[in-house]
Amino acid sequence: MIEVKEVEKKFGRKKILKDVSFTANKGEITCLIGINGVGKTTLLNAIMALTPINNGEILIDGEPVKEKTFEKISLIPDALTMIPNMTIEEAMEFMNDFYTSWNRERAEELLGFFRLNKNDRISSLSKGNTAKVNLLLGLALDVDYVLMDEPFSGIDMFSREEIANVFTSHLIENRGVIITTHEVNDIEHLIDKVVLLDDGMVTKEFDAEKAREDDGMSVIDVMREVYQG
Ligand SMILES: Nc1ncnc2c1ncn2[C@@H]1O[C@H](COP(=O)(O)OP(=O)(O)OP(=O)(O)O)[C@@H](O)[C@H]1O
Q1: How far is the CA of 42 from the centre of ligand 1 (A)?
Q2: Where is the ABC transporter domain positioned along the sequence (predicted)?
Q3: What ipTM was assigned to the predicted interfaces of this complex?
Q4: Who is most buried in 18, 22, 100, 174, counting CB within 10 A?
Protein backbone atom coordinates (compact mmCIF):
# COMPACT_ATOMS: atom_id res chain seq x y z
CA MET A 1 0.00 0.00 0.00
CA ILE A 2 1.11 3.57 -0.66
CA GLU A 3 0.29 5.80 2.31
CA VAL A 4 0.48 9.56 1.98
CA LYS A 5 0.12 11.12 5.42
CA GLU A 6 -0.44 14.81 6.11
CA VAL A 7 2.00 15.86 3.41
CA GLU A 8 2.96 19.49 3.11
CA LYS A 9 5.05 20.89 0.26
CA LYS A 10 6.22 24.44 -0.32
CA PHE A 11 7.99 25.99 -3.28
CA GLY A 12 9.63 29.05 -1.80
CA ARG A 13 6.93 30.64 0.31
CA LYS A 14 4.12 29.17 -1.75
CA LYS A 15 2.42 26.22 -0.08
CA ILE A 16 1.36 23.83 -2.86
CA LEU A 17 0.34 20.83 -0.76
CA LYS A 18 -1.09 21.90 2.58
CA ASP A 19 -2.27 18.68 4.17
CA VAL A 20 -2.62 15.75 1.81
CA SER A 21 -3.49 12.27 3.07
CA PHE A 22 -4.73 9.26 1.11
CA THR A 23 -3.90 5.64 0.47
CA ALA A 24 -3.52 3.65 -2.75
CA ASN A 25 -3.79 -0.14 -2.66
CA LYS A 26 -2.19 -2.87 -4.71
CA GLY A 27 -4.57 -4.33 -7.27
CA GLU A 28 -6.47 -1.06 -7.52
CA ILE A 29 -6.47 1.98 -9.77
CA THR A 30 -6.47 5.17 -7.75
CA CYS A 31 -7.14 8.38 -9.61
CA LEU A 32 -5.88 11.74 -8.36
CA ILE A 33 -8.14 14.39 -9.79
CA GLY A 34 -7.64 18.12 -9.62
CA ILE A 35 -7.47 21.19 -11.83
CA ASN A 36 -4.22 22.31 -13.50
CA GLY A 37 -1.65 23.46 -11.00
CA VAL A 38 -3.24 21.86 -7.94
CA GLY A 39 -0.07 19.85 -7.29
CA LYS A 40 -0.71 16.42 -8.82
CA THR A 41 2.72 16.09 -10.46
CA THR A 42 4.37 17.42 -7.32
CA LEU A 43 2.59 14.73 -5.31
CA LEU A 44 3.80 11.94 -7.62
CA ASN A 45 7.33 13.34 -7.45
CA ALA A 46 7.05 13.40 -3.66
CA ILE A 47 5.96 9.73 -3.58
CA MET A 48 9.03 8.89 -5.69
CA ALA A 49 11.20 11.00 -3.35
CA LEU A 50 12.19 13.12 -6.35
CA THR A 51 11.21 16.25 -4.47
CA PRO A 52 11.56 16.71 -0.70
CA ILE A 53 8.45 17.34 1.38
CA ASN A 54 8.29 19.89 4.19
CA ASN A 55 6.07 17.91 6.50
CA GLY A 56 4.28 14.61 6.77
CA GLU A 57 5.25 11.12 5.74
CA ILE A 58 5.02 8.82 2.71
CA LEU A 59 5.20 5.06 3.20
CA ILE A 60 5.41 2.31 0.59
CA ASP A 61 4.36 -1.05 2.03
CA GLY A 62 4.84 0.41 5.49
CA GLU A 63 8.33 1.81 4.90
CA PRO A 64 9.70 5.22 3.95
CA VAL A 65 11.19 5.36 0.44
CA LYS A 66 14.76 4.11 0.25
CA GLU A 67 17.00 2.91 -2.56
CA LYS A 68 15.41 -0.54 -2.67
CA THR A 69 11.93 0.97 -3.05
CA PHE A 70 12.74 1.85 -6.67
CA GLU A 71 12.70 -1.84 -7.49
CA LYS A 72 8.98 -1.92 -6.76
CA ILE A 73 7.67 1.41 -7.95
CA SER A 74 7.92 3.32 -11.22
CA LEU A 75 6.85 6.74 -12.40
CA ILE A 76 5.65 7.32 -15.95
CA PRO A 77 6.01 11.07 -16.47
CA ASP A 78 3.68 13.09 -18.71
CA ALA A 79 6.34 13.32 -21.42
CA LEU A 80 8.71 10.78 -22.89
CA THR A 81 12.26 11.44 -21.70
CA MET A 82 14.15 9.25 -24.19
CA ILE A 83 16.58 10.72 -26.75
CA PRO A 84 14.49 11.59 -29.86
CA ASN A 85 17.01 10.06 -32.25
CA MET A 86 16.60 6.60 -30.68
CA THR A 87 14.37 3.97 -32.25
CA ILE A 88 11.76 2.35 -30.00
CA GLU A 89 13.95 -0.76 -29.95
CA GLU A 90 17.00 1.25 -28.81
CA ALA A 91 14.91 2.84 -26.07
CA MET A 92 13.85 -0.65 -24.94
CA GLU A 93 17.50 -1.80 -24.93
CA PHE A 94 18.42 1.27 -22.90
CA MET A 95 15.78 0.38 -20.32
CA ASN A 96 16.98 -3.22 -20.28
CA ASP A 97 20.56 -2.09 -19.55
CA PHE A 98 19.43 0.33 -16.90
CA TYR A 99 16.81 -1.58 -14.91
CA THR A 100 17.11 -5.07 -13.44
CA SER A 101 13.29 -5.09 -13.26
CA TRP A 102 12.90 -4.73 -17.07
CA ASN A 103 10.68 -7.54 -18.38
CA ARG A 104 11.53 -8.19 -22.06
CA GLU A 105 8.53 -10.43 -22.61
CA ARG A 106 6.08 -7.88 -21.29
CA ALA A 107 7.77 -5.14 -23.36
CA GLU A 108 7.29 -7.20 -26.54
CA GLU A 109 3.69 -7.87 -25.58
CA LEU A 110 3.02 -4.19 -25.03
CA LEU A 111 4.60 -3.41 -28.39
CA GLY A 112 2.05 -5.71 -30.03
CA PHE A 113 -0.79 -4.45 -27.84
CA PHE A 114 -0.15 -0.86 -28.94
CA ARG A 115 0.66 -1.91 -32.54
CA LEU A 116 3.97 -0.04 -32.47
CA ASN A 117 6.85 -0.63 -34.86
CA LYS A 118 10.12 -0.96 -32.96
CA ASN A 119 12.17 0.41 -35.85
CA ASP A 120 10.39 3.77 -35.71
CA ARG A 121 12.39 6.68 -34.40
CA ILE A 122 10.99 8.44 -31.34
CA SER A 123 11.24 11.82 -33.10
CA SER A 124 8.94 10.54 -35.89
CA LEU A 125 6.12 9.31 -33.64
CA SER A 126 2.68 10.89 -33.42
CA LYS A 127 1.58 12.28 -30.06
CA GLY A 128 -0.56 9.20 -29.42
CA ASN A 129 2.24 6.77 -30.24
CA THR A 130 4.70 8.77 -28.14
CA ALA A 131 2.32 8.41 -25.19
CA LYS A 132 2.08 4.67 -25.88
CA VAL A 133 5.89 4.27 -25.96
CA ASN A 134 6.08 6.20 -22.73
CA LEU A 135 3.58 3.81 -21.13
CA LEU A 136 5.31 0.77 -22.61
CA LEU A 137 8.63 1.76 -21.06
CA GLY A 138 7.05 2.18 -17.62
CA LEU A 139 4.72 -0.82 -17.71
CA ALA A 140 7.40 -3.26 -18.86
CA LEU A 141 9.15 -2.88 -15.52
CA ASP A 142 8.29 -5.62 -13.02
CA VAL A 143 7.13 -3.37 -10.23
CA ASP A 144 4.26 -3.49 -7.74
CA TYR A 145 3.25 0.14 -8.12
CA VAL A 146 3.02 2.34 -11.21
CA LEU A 147 2.45 6.09 -11.01
CA MET A 148 1.20 7.69 -14.24
CA ASP A 149 1.09 11.42 -14.77
CA GLU A 150 -1.75 12.41 -17.13
CA PRO A 151 -1.44 9.40 -19.46
CA PHE A 152 -4.42 10.56 -21.56
CA SER A 153 -3.47 14.18 -21.94
CA GLY A 154 -3.54 15.71 -25.42
CA ILE A 155 -4.05 12.54 -27.45
CA ASP A 156 -6.78 11.47 -29.85
CA MET A 157 -9.85 9.43 -28.97
CA PHE A 158 -8.63 6.16 -30.52
CA SER A 159 -5.26 6.27 -28.79
CA ARG A 160 -7.05 7.07 -25.53
CA GLU A 161 -9.24 4.02 -26.04
CA GLU A 162 -6.23 1.78 -26.71
CA ILE A 163 -4.46 3.09 -23.63
CA ALA A 164 -7.61 2.61 -21.55
CA ASN A 165 -7.72 -1.04 -22.72
CA VAL A 166 -4.35 -1.63 -21.06
CA PHE A 167 -5.92 -0.89 -17.70
CA THR A 168 -8.38 -3.75 -17.99
CA SER A 169 -5.76 -6.20 -19.30
CA HIS A 170 -3.49 -8.62 -17.46
CA LEU A 171 -0.66 -6.12 -18.05
CA ILE A 172 -1.94 -4.13 -15.07
CA GLU A 173 -3.49 -6.86 -12.94
CA ASN A 174 -2.43 -6.98 -9.28
CA ARG A 175 -0.41 -3.80 -9.45
CA GLY A 176 -1.22 -0.65 -7.59
CA VAL A 177 -1.74 2.18 -10.06
CA ILE A 178 -2.02 5.89 -9.36
CA ILE A 179 -3.16 8.02 -12.30
CA THR A 180 -3.41 11.79 -12.28
CA THR A 181 -5.88 13.55 -14.49
CA HIS A 182 -8.07 16.62 -14.78
CA GLU A 183 -10.57 14.84 -17.04
CA VAL A 184 -12.16 11.53 -16.10
CA ASN A 185 -14.59 10.87 -18.95
CA ASP A 186 -12.58 8.16 -20.70
CA ILE A 187 -11.42 6.31 -17.64
CA GLU A 188 -14.31 6.63 -15.26
CA HIS A 189 -15.25 2.94 -15.63
CA LEU A 190 -11.68 1.82 -14.88
CA ILE A 191 -11.17 3.64 -11.61
CA ASP A 192 -11.46 1.89 -8.24
CA LYS A 193 -10.74 4.82 -5.99
CA VAL A 194 -10.90 8.57 -6.44
CA VAL A 195 -8.96 11.23 -4.58
CA LEU A 196 -10.18 14.76 -5.25
CA LEU A 197 -7.61 17.49 -4.69
CA ASP A 198 -8.38 21.15 -4.27
CA ASP A 199 -6.46 24.03 -2.75
CA GLY A 200 -3.62 21.81 -1.53
CA MET A 201 -5.91 19.37 0.26
CA VAL A 202 -7.89 16.19 -0.32
CA THR A 203 -11.51 17.32 -0.49
CA LYS A 204 -12.86 13.80 -0.88
CA GLU A 205 -11.56 10.23 -1.12
CA PHE A 206 -14.09 7.63 -2.23
CA ASP A 207 -14.64 4.20 -3.70
CA ALA A 208 -15.95 4.71 -7.27
CA GLU A 209 -17.79 1.38 -7.41
CA LYS A 210 -19.47 2.02 -4.05
CA ALA A 211 -20.62 5.49 -5.14
CA ARG A 212 -22.11 3.88 -8.25
CA GLU A 213 -23.81 1.02 -6.40
CA ASP A 214 -24.90 2.67 -3.15
CA ASP A 215 -25.72 6.19 -4.33
CA GLY A 216 -26.15 5.71 -8.08
CA MET A 217 -23.52 8.42 -8.62
CA SER A 218 -20.81 8.49 -11.26
CA VAL A 219 -17.39 9.94 -10.49
CA ILE A 220 -18.42 13.04 -12.40
CA ASP A 221 -21.63 13.34 -10.31
CA VAL A 222 -19.57 13.23 -7.11
CA MET A 223 -17.11 15.79 -8.52
CA ARG A 224 -19.98 18.10 -9.42
CA GLU A 225 -21.34 17.81 -5.87
CA VAL A 226 -17.92 18.53 -4.32
CA TYR A 227 -16.75 21.33 -6.61
CA GLN A 228 -20.07 23.04 -7.36
CA GLY A 229 -21.83 22.38 -4.07
N1 LIG B 1 10.13 23.32 -9.13
C2 LIG B 1 9.17 24.19 -8.89
N3 LIG B 1 9.45 25.42 -8.40
C4 LIG B 1 8.48 26.31 -8.12
N5 LIG B 1 7.16 26.07 -8.30
C6 LIG B 1 6.81 24.89 -8.79
C7 LIG B 1 7.78 23.88 -9.11
N8 LIG B 1 7.13 22.78 -9.57
C9 LIG B 1 5.81 23.09 -9.55
N10 LIG B 1 5.63 24.33 -9.08
C11 LIG B 1 4.32 24.99 -8.88
O12 LIG B 1 3.54 24.13 -8.08
C13 LIG B 1 2.17 24.14 -8.51
C14 LIG B 1 1.71 22.72 -8.74
O15 LIG B 1 2.36 22.20 -9.90
P16 LIG B 1 2.09 20.74 -10.42
O17 LIG B 1 2.83 20.59 -11.71
O18 LIG B 1 2.38 19.77 -9.35
O19 LIG B 1 0.53 20.78 -10.68
P20 LIG B 1 -0.41 19.78 -11.48
O21 LIG B 1 -1.63 19.61 -10.67
O22 LIG B 1 0.34 18.57 -11.85
O23 LIG B 1 -0.75 20.63 -12.76
P24 LIG B 1 -0.92 20.19 -14.30
O25 LIG B 1 -2.25 19.49 -14.39
O26 LIG B 1 -0.93 21.51 -15.01
O27 LIG B 1 0.25 19.33 -14.67
C28 LIG B 1 2.12 25.06 -9.73
O29 LIG B 1 1.67 26.33 -9.30
C30 LIG B 1 3.55 25.13 -10.19
O31 LIG B 1 3.81 26.37 -10.81
Answers
A1: 6
A2: 2-224
A3: 0.94
A4: 22
